[in-house]
Design goal:
The complex is a heterotrimer. Chain A has 18 helices and 12 strands. By secondary structure, chain A is of the alpha/beta class. In chain A, strands 6, 7, 8, 9, 10 and 12 form a 6-stranded mixed β-sheet that branches. Chain A has a 4-stranded antiparallel β-sheet with strand order 3-11-5-4, covered by helices on one side. In chain A, helix 14 packs across helix 15 and helix 17 runs antiparallel to helix 18. The longest helix of chain A has 23 residues. The radius of gyration of chain A is 24 Å and the shape is globular. Chain A starts with a helix and ends with a helix. The N terminus of chain A is likely disordered. Chain B is mainly alpha-helical. The longest helix of chain B has about 35 residues. The mean pLDDT of chain B is about 75. Chain C is mainly alpha-helical. Chain C has 13 helices and 4 strands. Chain C has a two-stranded antiparallel sheet. In chain C, strands 3-4 form a two-stranded antiparallel ribbon. In chain C, strand 3 and strand 4 form a beta hairpin. In chain C, helix 4 packs parallel to helix 7. The longest helix of chain C is centred in the first third of the chain and has 32 residues. The interface between B and C is large, with 59 and 69 residues.
Chain lengths: ~425, ~160, ~300
């Protein structure tokens, strides 16, 4: 008898373990689940979420996908019983994949807070799929103090020839100066996007020839690929690191720039917070690459940070999410913190930006230079397209032969068409 | 004559022992490299993989401190979760599969044979085959918390267990 | 007498059977959740077009057609097969040699056993990163990297797998070797067999069952390899062909399926699932075939 009781108890205990999970949070108003894709902002967002919950009682969960895994995380999270209510659709490929899961944001309270339409993404039917919550700029970060130490001035760098002369001079005297021209341009996952995603933009931008793409072109010509090569070669051959060692990565480019070992650093406005204490005068210059008239070039401005609301979420959750977004861009304290981590938020009542690189971008615009839009956001099947570009650039870094550059060209141009086909057929 | 073979054998054994000692040391080297590199500054891990963490390369214990406290997902928590999951699932698996194996052994019905075959069968199914549906099922039944994942483990491993018993 | 006995077993069986639900229930429920249901769903999904499982649409065998047209899948298949065979041979030969030496009774056997088994305790992803660091540390001196040459990637993965698996297989072989009856060995020695003859004619036939298990495990492990492949090379280097099609030279089947699943295309999830089904049939077929083949060669004691 005793045995029977024990075994029954055991059985009950086991069943209980199985059912424990089924309890969970009940439905009480809506809640917010933000799938964030910027690991560097995670800490701030958790803080913001906690503040909002403390103020309003609405539950806000922020989950950050690990670096480089946003799209896979999104895919598995969206299939769950409690999917993200707020997620990021940052480019045209994302719009294609997720437009059916995004609420039309046209004329919603959050859209009315925007001060520009420039960073919004629409699908082909004109539905407002996602709206920018911040924008960024990228180019070449420069430490002007080092340039002067090497006996040059920033005024010399107004086009590719100027940049090349300065960079090559610094590199040739690196031993004597104690610093080199460019910081390392690693090709590992944590760094390769600076080239396959950002620097590649100069080719796409100029290839648009003045009329910005509105959807992903089926093919590209690679007409300005030689200009990309100009800048890329300059970067890898005048740097602290032997190009043959770039494949593995592991060089800390940010640290090289911060500690004054390199004068140039290819990156974007989000680096400002990290470098401003060590290099207070740091500024950003455009990708000079030898295109005619590039003296009038500005920085690459755009965003991949666009909020979308999950259309399959319950109405209460959608409402809660909308309220939270509006609070983020109107509450002075919250928007201050967010602007400090994001750089700038394109909303009427958000806090002012203090980002020096974005200020540089505005200065270029004020001086009548053209803004280079992020045509890179149209890259088809992004991860796969960039992966093959990395592989080709690895081969090229190890041996800078014409044949290897042709492989890069194939990956760049033919790869585009191939990925376009994969996605669209 | 016999003595000779024995001493020859002893000699062989000594040689083998020495060879094995060398191989063992080589075997441990990768782990040693990891330990060494854990004391190095990030930049030097890939550039000076096998150097001792001396001088400017040395990061002291800062990597460990950072590892334990970094971000909002502290390592300590992950370790605790791992321990929890391991203990719970080991307990569940041992208890349940031994009961099942005992039952299959005793009762020789067609049903039991079918279950046994299914268990062996599950050993050759690659995880990719069930990965996506499994995560979906686990989510639907709310089994994707540290407290309930052991149930999923119990379901995914009985093949190996019951065939061992 | 006989009938009485069977009656007794029958009543015992009946008594046991009453408790069947209790004994089998928990495992069975978990097994259905953790394996049977996902498995069935997996087969169904391989004939669907879906992005999220909740909105799958049945489309028949299109996914399978696409799979067979996929050059990268074919490459991954041959690469995996080659890897599985090479690693199978090397791992088992080395593991058996080590096990044989360790059963000779030399000093420090226990310590060596522990050392050889240790790498097995490290998880696959971590292993991949450890070795990628080591290989690049070495290859870096020669201005190259494991990501630049597919032959480095191949042999690197073999070395990694040997490091991880030899200890495990060694334990199984040791158990087998210790079970070889001493009297047979003694008889062989008295009959004047040389140690080589004893090894090949007596010992090995008697540990055939260990071989069966080890070969089965290393074959299926080789085919199913994923973590280590992802962390060590992730498929690099690629061959980029004219027209843009790309072959990831060191991508194995499991990684190929994973990459397909997460590529951005409305049909790719279904294709990935179809690949997984084909992959499953392959692994299951090979594994069971090998089992039945080596089982025949085992010596009954």
């Amino acid at each position: 008898m005793k045995k029977k009781i024990i075994s029954t108890l055991l059985c009950v205990a086991m069943m209980a373990t199985m059912l424990v999970g089924c309890g969970g949070s009940g439905a009480k108003g809506g809640s917010v689940y933000w799938l964030n894709f910027k690991p560097e902002s995670d800490e701030v967002l958790q803080d913001i979420a906690a503040t909002y919950t403390a103020e309003t009682g609405v539950e806000v969960k922020v989950v950050t996908a690990a670096s480089g895994t946003y799209s896979t995380t999104l895919l598995s999270e969206m299939d769950k019983s409690a999917p993200p209510t707020l997620f990021v659709i940052g480019n045209q490929a994302g719009v294609k994949d997720w437009k059916d899961y995004a609420l039309d944001l046209k004329d919603t309270p959050i859209a009315n807070e925007l001060n520009t339409d420039a960073y919004n993404l629409y699908d082909e039917t004109g539905k407002l799929v996602s709206i920018g919550y911040c924008y960024e700029c990228y180019g070449i970060i420069v430490n002007p103090d080092l340039i002067e130490k090497a006996g040059h001035t920033m005024d010399e760098i107004k086009n590719f020839d100027g940049l090349k002369a300065v960079a090559e001079d610094i590199h040739s005297r690196a031993g004597e100066l104690g610093f080199d021209a460019f910081s390392s341009s690693d090709m590992d996952d944590s760094s390769s996007w600076r080239f396959t995603g950002h620097m590649a933009n100069l080719e796409y931008y100029y290839e648009q020839e003045g009329t910005a793409w509105t959807e992903c072109p089926a093919t590209i010509s690679g007409k300005y690929l030689d200009n990309f090569k100009n800048l890329y070669d300059l970067c890898i051959n005048n740097s602290l690191t032997d190009p043959k060692e770039l494949a593995t990565g592991g060089h800390d480019a940010e640290n090289e720039f911060k500690t004054g070992k390199a004068a140039f650093f290819v990156n974007g406005s989000w680096e400002y917070e990290a470098v401003k204490t060590d290099v207070p005068n740091a500024t950003m210059i455009p990708y000079y690459c030898g295109v005619a008239g590039e003296e009038k070039a500005g920085l690459n401005c755009g965003t991949e940070n666009c909020w979308a609301i999950n259309s399959k979420a319950s109405e209460a959750d959608q409402q809660a999410t909308m309220d939270f977004m509006v609070w983020c861009v109107t509450n002075p304290d919250a928007s201050r913190k967010l602007v400090d981590t994001f750089g700038v938020m394109p909303y009427k009542s958000a806090a002012e930006s203090t980002n020096g690189f974005l200020a540089a971008a505005n200065q270029y615009t004020a001086d009548g230079c053209y803004v280079m839009n992020w045509a890179t956001n149209f890259q088809p099947n992004v991860d796969s397209y960039r992966a093959r570009l990395v592989s080709a650039l690895n081969q090229y870094n190890a041996d800078q032969s014409d044949a290897n550059w042709e492989t890069v060209r194939t990956a760049f141009v033919d790869g585009w068409a191939e990925e376009y086909n994969t996605v669209n057929n | 004559m016999k003595k000779n073979t024995i001493s020859a054998m002893n000699r062989h054994k000594t040689i083998l022992s020495v060879i094995l000692a060398v191989v063992s040391i080589v075997y441990v080297l990768p782990v040693l490299a990891v330990v060494l590199n854990s004391f190095k500054q990030n930049t030097y891990v890939k550039t000076d993989t096998f150097a001792l963490p001396m001088g400017e390369m040395s990061a002291g214990f800062s990597n460990f401190v950072k590892g334990m406290t970094f971000g909002n997902y502290p390592f300590v928590n992950s370790v605790l979760y791992s321990v929890l999951i391991t203990v719970l699932s080991t307990f569940l698996i041992l208890l349940c599969t031994s009961m099942a194996a005992w039952y299959i052994e005793r009762v020789n019905s067609l049903f039991c044979k079918a279950v046994y075959f299914l268990c062996v069968f599950s050993m050759v199914v690659p995880f990719q085959m069930v990965m996506f549906p499994l995560s979906k099922t686990a989510d639907k039944l709310h089994l994707n918390t540290p407290w309930t994942i052991p149930v999923v483990y119990l379901g995914s491993v009985p093949g190996l267990q019951s065939s061992c018993l | 007498m006989k009938s009485k006995k069977s009656n007794a077993t029958n009543s015992l069986q009946k008594a046991t059977r009453r408790w069947g639900v209790l004994f089998m229930g928990p495992v069975l429920i978990a097994f259905i959740i953790g394996f049977v249901w996902p498995f069935i769903q997996g087969i169904w999904l391989s004939m669907c077009q879906f992005r999220l499982i909740s909105d799958a649409k049945f489309i028949g065998f299109d996914n399978y057609v696409k799979t067979f047209q996929d050059a990268s899948f074919r490459h991954a298949f041959w690469y995996t097969a080659m890897f599985a065979i090479v690693s199978l041979v090397i791992i088992n030969v080395l593991a058996f040699i080590v096990a044989y030496i360790l059963t000779l009774g030399i000093k420090g056997s226990n310590l060596y056993r522990t050392v050889f088994f240790m790498p097995n305790l490290i998880g696959g992803i971590v292993l991949g990163y450890i070795w990628s660091m080591i290989f690049d540390g070495i290859l870096g001196r020669y201005q190259t990297s494991i990501l630049l040459e597919s032959k480095y990637g191949f042999w690197g993965l073999i070395i990694l797998m040997c490091w991880q698996q030899i200890g495990y297989m060694m334990i199984i072989y040791i158990a087998g070797l210790q079970n070889v009856p001493g009297d047979i060995l003694e008889a062989a020695r008295i009959d004047g067999a040389t140690s080589m003859q004893t090894l090949f004619k007596v010992t090995i036939p008697n540990v055939m069952s260990s071989f069966t298990i080890c070969i089965f495990l290393s074959l299926t492990n080789g085919f199913k390899l994923f973590d280590q492949n992802l962390a060590l090379t992730g498929g690099q280097p690629f061959i980029i062909q004219e027209g843009g099609t790309t072959i990831k030279t060191t991508e194995m089947l499991a990684l190929n399926i994973y990459n397909t699943f997460y590529s951005s295309n409305t049909t790719s999830q279904g294709v990935a699932q179809a690949k997984a089904v084909i992959f499953f049939i392959l692994v299951a077929g090979l594994g069971l075939l090998q089992l039945s083949y080596t089982r025949k060669r085992e010596v009954q004691q």
